[in-house]
Each structure stands twice: as C-alpha cells, then as structure tokens.
Amino acid sequence: MDIRKEIIRITSEYFEDKLDFQKLSNASKEFKSILNVICGQDLDIEEGRKDIEHGNGKALGTFWAALCLDDLLRTRQFIRGIDKAIKDKRKKKPIHILYAGTGPFATLILPIIFRYQKEDIKYTLLEVNPFTFQILQNVISKLGLKEFDIDLVNNDATKFKIDSKNEPDIIISETMQNALAKEQQVPIFLNLMRQVKLDTIFIPEKIELHLGLKKAGIPSEELQIKHFNKVEKVFEVSKESMFPQKQSEKQSIIKNSFPKKKTVIESKKLKGFNQLVIITEIQVFKNEKIVINESGLTTPLFIQEIPKNLKDSLIIDTQYQISSEPKLEYKITLPNNV
Ligand SMILES: C[S@@+](CC[C@H](N)C(=O)[O-])C[C@H]1O[C@@H](n2cnc3c(N)ncnc32)[C@H](O)[C@@H]1O
Predict the structure, then answer these.
(1) Sheet strand arrangement including 149-153
(2) Is there a domain that residue 226 lies in?
(3) Where are the transmembrane segments (predicted)?
(4) How far apart are alpha carbons 8 and 4 in whole angstroms?
C-alpha cells in the first residue's frame, strides 16, 4: 500500500466544498483507523490518559489529543483553513509552518503535507507532552517523511523562543476548549504573537467569547444557533486584539492582563431566556468558521440560571485570566428584588 496516496484519498473529503456529514464521518473513521495502524500503540493506557498540568493550563493526555480528530467539523474547518492560508502565502517559497500542540498524529497538517511539494513548505512541529511526542516521532518516521523539511521539537509553546532568522509564516494551534477554559490556547498565542511580524497568519485567525442568552423551553438535544442571542463580546484572541493600537491596552497585555468588561443586561431583554451562557465562535481562516454548537469547541458554556420576572438589570463583570486553570472569570450581580 502506498501510504501517501492512501492518506490523500482518505482525507480528500475534508477539501470538498459541499459538506456531506455522512461522507465526512466515513472519511474521519478511515483517517483514524489508518493513523492507529501507523501508530501501532494502544493510547488508552495510564500514560496516555494523563493530562499534564502547567502553570498556564493543562496539556491533554495523548489518548484525549488523538480523540480530537472525531470532532468532525472542527477537524474539517481547521484543515481547510490551513490549506487556504498556505495558498494565501504561496508566493513565498518555502513557507514555514509552526504547528504548536500537534497531538500524536499532527492531525491537522497530515492531510496537507502530501498535497504539496517538499520544497514548498518547511514545518516545525511542537509538542509538550513527552509521550505524545514519542508517538509523533514514530508516526512521522513510519510515514517516510524524512525527505521533507520537518523539525520536531519537544517543548512548551507558551515559552518557546522563535528563531528570528527562521520566523514562521503560518502558526497553527488548536489547544482550546469551549469558552477558552482549562487549556493553553491564549498563553500559547500570546507568546508566539509577541515574537513575529504582523503578516504572520495565525490559525485560528480569531476566537471570540460573547456573553449570551439561551431561549427558555428548548430541550438540550434540540438546541440550535437560533436559540442563542449574543449580548456582548467580552474577549477576543486575534493579532488585532493582542496588538492593539492603543498604547495603554498594549501595556496591560504585555503584562498578561486582559481588559475588564462590565456588561449590563436590562430586564426587558431577558424575557423568554432562562440561561446566561458564554458563547465561543472561531474564525479559523477567512470564511472557514466554526459557529455555535458546530463543535465541542463552540458549545455554549452555561454560567447562570436567569430568575423569572427580574425587575432590574443583570450586571456581569468579566475578565480573561491566565492561570493553572485559565478561563473567563465572571462575577454576576443579581438585583436585590429577585
Ligand atoms: C487539543 S489537542 C489537539 C491535537 C491536534 N493538534 C488536533 O488538533 O487534533 C492539543 C495538543 O496540544 C498539546 N499542547 C498543549 N499545550 C501545549 C504547550 N504549551 N506546548 C506544546 N504543546 C501543547 C497537547 O499535549 C495536545 O497534544
């Protein structure tokens, strides 16, 4: 079997513009199964299930990182976004891609590697989890990728120093959960964004958190995008937000402290809604997006039941905080007359 041709064939569904869930699901199962064969190691063992706790959040265990492939739309949108970003940069040769947090299979880049000439792209694959890294090395070697320009680095992307003579053109990282909680997407991007020029493409290009409201009386299995109302954007991860024009905002971000927001929701705007939520939306690259509920990454996070017949406004103070458990911190002030 020619493994390269097989990977190109199996993963071709990700590049189809027309979304067919059945075909996508079949392709994803086939992709996973070939990766498991190449890997040749059971990841569902104690070492594989162990998350690694860092001061800036956790890095998923190998078994869990491998499972991300099953989040069908996430995987499709990221692969498509990366491919479009490469096409955007194609005038430059070779393009340098830094992939921070590859998981054991470098899942998001593998369908891409064999579709481009080896002279066109060089890769830095960065992974912090030593067990995941060991599997990654094995997978890359078994795929016969030696003739490609691939640098494998077992390092922490929140501290990684970019070589200024070898700056990446595209930086990819999917190290997040919904509401940007627990994992290290924000400190990873913050560290890398500080070290590169403004024309470096980050994948995802933009992640937004909104405070939102969920309509009352809809069973959870029937929830759709139309049942959520966005109230106010409270946090954004993008080059524009991390490199703001205003000097004062720049200063606070340099110190890893993000702006505080106060959101006031008038009682009349709460009618018909029963939950306050944090909504996550991802612009992977240009029109490749992941909207509410399309992926585990964009499942709205419930934060507060809204009492019936509120007569006063609801006040919510928010601020994103990087810590051993990064998250959007919030303080909800309920009116006295509840
Ligand atoms: C959510 S998984 C995604 C795996 C794969 N990229 C995918 O999209 O299917 C995140 C991966 O990033 C790695 N990771 C998390 N924090 C990291 C850090 N600070 N530096 C490098 N890798 C990190 C984890 O160990 C894990 O393998």
Answers:
(1) 149-153, 121-126, 95-100, 170-172, 201-203
(2) yes
(3) 97-116
(4) 6
Residue 338 lies in a domain: no
Residue 65 per-residue DSSP state:
H
Closest CA to 306 of 222, 226, 211: 211
| Ligand 1: nearest atom to the Cα of 129 | 25
Distance in angstroms (rounded) separating the CA atoms of residues 59 and 74: 18
Nearest Cα residue to atom 16 of ligand 1: 59
Residue 179 belongs to domain with CATH number? 3.40.50.150
Query: Please, which residues have CB within 8 angstroms of residue 111's CB and are 6 or more apart in sequence?
Result: 7, 8, 11, 14, 15, 31, 79
Q: Is the CB of 174 under 6 A from ligand 1?
A: yes
How many residues appear in the chain? 338
21-48 tens-digit pLDDT? 999 999 999 999 999 999 999 999 999 9
> Looking at residue 82, what is its pLDDT?
98
175 lines ligand 1 (CB under 6 A): yes
Give the mean pLDDT of the chain. 94
Which of 50, 74, 175, 295 gets mutated to test ligand 1 (max ligand atoms within 8 A of its CB)? Answer: 175
Number of domains in the chain: 1
